[in-house]
Amino acid sequence: MIDQLLKMADGPLQDLLSQSGMNSTPGASRAIEDTLGSLLKNKTQSGDVSAIKEMFSGNDTDPQSPVIQNLAGDLSSGLMDKLGISSDQAINLAKTALPMLMNFFNQRVNDAPQANEDIMNSVVKALQGGPGTGGADILGSLLGGGKDRGMDLGGLMNMGKGLFK
User: Fold this and answer.
1) Do both 28 and 61 map to the same domain?
2) Which domain holds residue 131?
3) Of the four, 30, 76, 91, 118, which is 20 to 30 A from 13 by CA?
4) What is the pTM of this model?
5) Model pLDDT for residues 59-105, shown as the tens digit of each residue
6) Distance between CA 10 and CA 150 in Å, rounded?
7) How far apart are alpha carbons 14 and 158 in whole angstroms?
């Protein structure tokens, strides 16, 4: 589910990378999205939900925030592996992309029909993958999709579209 949400930020992320001169590495935006998605899943499953809470808080994320600093190191390691770039290039790429992505979602979550906390908690539960916590089911129950069973993938995508009007 987080992968689908991150893909919705692809256009703005590519624009940011292009404007900053960092888009010279082929596949950079996809590598950022894939690596960050895996990173957020792993952190959430291990109980660290600070990044997800920040991402869906509705408040601006400062580039110097502890969440950005915490994610930047792990993201840059993944980018070095995926893109074959130097440590300096990877950390610059991570520190450029992370605040933009966090704020991309923070700006849009405020316009969603659900409370920010409901969206944030749904994403956390879906990423933690506990029994009966399918991402579509959780989001569906909070967003009114389906009867008692949540929503299908189409409903999940419609929810995503609602975040990005």
Assistant:
1) yes
2) 116-163
3) 118
4) 0.76
5) 999 999 999 999 999 999 999 999 999 999 999 999 999 999 999 98
6) 27
7) 23
Contacts by residues 121-125 (CB-CB < 8 Å, ≥ 24 positions apart): 123/1, 123/2, 123/5, 123/52, 123/56, 124/44, 124/49, 124/52, 124/53
Quick one: residue 47, left, alpha or beta (phi over 0 = left, psi -120 to 50 = alpha)? Answer: left
The verdict on 58 and 83 lying in the same domain is yes
CA distances from 25 to 14, 15, 86, 101, 130 (A): 11, 14, 12, 19, 37
Distance separating alpha carbons of residues 150 and 145, to the nearest angstrom: 5
CB neighbour class for 141 (10 Å; exposed up to 12, middle 13-18, buried from 19): middle
